[in-house]
Amino acid sequence: MSHFRLTNLTRQVEIGANCYLLETGNRRIVLDCGAHPKHEGAKAQPLWEHLGEKRLDAIILSHAHQDHLGSLPVLMRKYPGVPAFMTEPTRQLADVMMHNSVNVMAKRHENGEGETPSFSHKEATNCTRRFRSLPLHQRFNLAGERLGVGETADVSIQFEDAGHILGSASVLIECDGRRLVYTGDVNFDSQSLMSGARLPEQEIDTVIIETTRGAIPQPEGFTRAEEEKRFATAIREIFAQGGSVLVPVFALGKSQELLTMIYTLRQKGLLPECPVYIGGLSTKLSEIHDKLASASHRQHPGLNLLESVAPFTISGREINQFPIKPGRIYALSSGMMTEHTLSNVVAPQFLPNPAHGIFFVGYADPESPAGRLRNTKQGEMFHLSPSIPGEVLRCRVETFGFSAHSDREGLVGYLERTAPKNVVFVHGDPAAVDWFKTTMAPKIPDTQLLTALPGIALEL
Ligand SMILES: [Zn+2]
């Protein structure tokens, strides 16, 4: 008899978006509810048709990135009254992220580029009223009631720190003595701001694990400290030749990691004091980081980013006429340099100028402008978008390894220590999933290694 049934509600086996239906006993839970960043409207949303007709008991949100959160208001519209559980930092960040995504969708629609927004500000607000924040390390039943020591429930949930971004959590779900861990996005290593994940390893029956970096080996001898030094050196070199640096970043997570890195590199004397610019959304999200600075499991507890680094905020309205000046760091979203975002709009001022640099610090889809730019050679034409003329690439382009996701060795280590009965690989491209299956098979030979194909239920 199986104890858990898992249906992948995403449209493909890829990094794209996250949404999974977990059934156990007679309870039904949806894990995450993302939107695919490359698509719009219904195509960006999960496979709703596989949710079936039965009632839903709970939604669990691992963290507030769009690929885990972006379709949540649509799901909550389908199931009025169903609670969504998350950590308190995620609750606060998700509120800002959902309203921001309404603004983005509405603007695209107004410009005749996008589909009708999939939800409104009013729906986003209604949704947040049903958000229930739960503390880490404590068990709750699906009504959100805390379970005392020895107290049982048909299904219990417990959040643990996933080390990916502020508020990110993996969840331990127990039913009938069977224990399942859904990692969400996880990082076992500490970053500049976030401390590494601490997940349960004892008597775990099933692990549903992300595989974002499964296709990429960590370079020989890589350490984050050395990579930070390399980053600081490259910035100083750009400044010395009279240029500025554009760092395309995700507003949530990467911006705050970068501000922390700038702070620590300055403390070490590796970076000079210089003006730093961030976007409006990054500022809003950084305020939440600062407000929760002492309350979250992270490095530099109490460090107030906006006070200590004192970045200037650039608004979307200013960016079109914003002159780039030398000796500055522009840490602007989006990380993938998507059309109409700050990093995309400002890039033509950087691309043709050999004094400047564009430095990447995280994941970029290979087809996104950022992904394409990384594969463009010096002197080649580069097109930021089909609607504007191309630029000859003359500025310095570098990529640094500051991923918010665990390297594959970290994930392998966790699976080896846990040795569960089942592992389900999700949130990775097919090559990444294949690498994990091949690598893990001899290491944990008694474990079933599974791929969750879209719309197909796995009995676990
Ligand atoms: Zn994430």
What does this structure look like?
The chain has 460 residues and is an alpha/beta fold. It folds into 2 domains: 5-216 and 404-459, Metallo-beta-lactamase, Chain A, CATH 3.60.15; 230-399, 3-Layer(aba) Sandwich (Rossmann fold). Helices cover 28% and strands 19% of the residues. The chain contains 13 helices and 22 strands. The chain has helices at 41-44, 66-69, 72-78, 88-110, 121-129, 224-240, 254-267, 280-291, 305-308, 342-346, 369-374, 408-418, 430-443, and strands at 5-8, 20-24, 27-31, 58-60, 84-86, 131-133, 139-141, 155-161, 169-175, 178-182, 206-210, 245-248, 276-279, 312-314, 329-332, 357-360, 381-382, 391-392, 396-399, 422-426, 448-451, 457-459. The strands form 4 sheets. The chain has a 7-stranded mixed β-sheet. Helix 4 (88-110) packs antiparallel against helix 5 (121-129) and helix 4 (88-110) packs antiparallel against helix 8. The chain is globular. The N and C termini lie close together (9 Å). It binds zinc ion. Zinc ion (ZN) is lined by residues 63, 65, 164, 185.
Write the SSE topology.
Blueprint: E1 5-8, E2 20-24, E3 27-31, H1 41-44, E4 58-60, H2 66-69, H3 72-78, E5 84-86, H4 88-110, H5 121-129, E6 131-133, E7 139-141, E8 155-161, E9 169-175, E10 178-182, E11 206-210, H6 224-240, E12 245-248, H7 254-267, E13 276-279, H8 280-291, H9 305-308, E14 312-314, E15 329-332, H10 342-346, E16 357-360, H11 369-374, E17 381-382, E18 391-392, E19 396-399, H12 408-418, E20 422-426, H13 430-443, E21 448-451, E22 457-459
Parallel strand pairs: 3-4, 4-5, 5-6, 10-11, 11-20, 12-15, 12-16, 13-14, 13-15, 16-19, 20-21
Antiparallel strand pairs: 1-2, 1-22, 2-3, 7-8, 8-9, 9-10, 17-18
Helix pairs in contact: 4-5, 4-8, 12-13
The structure holds zinc ion.
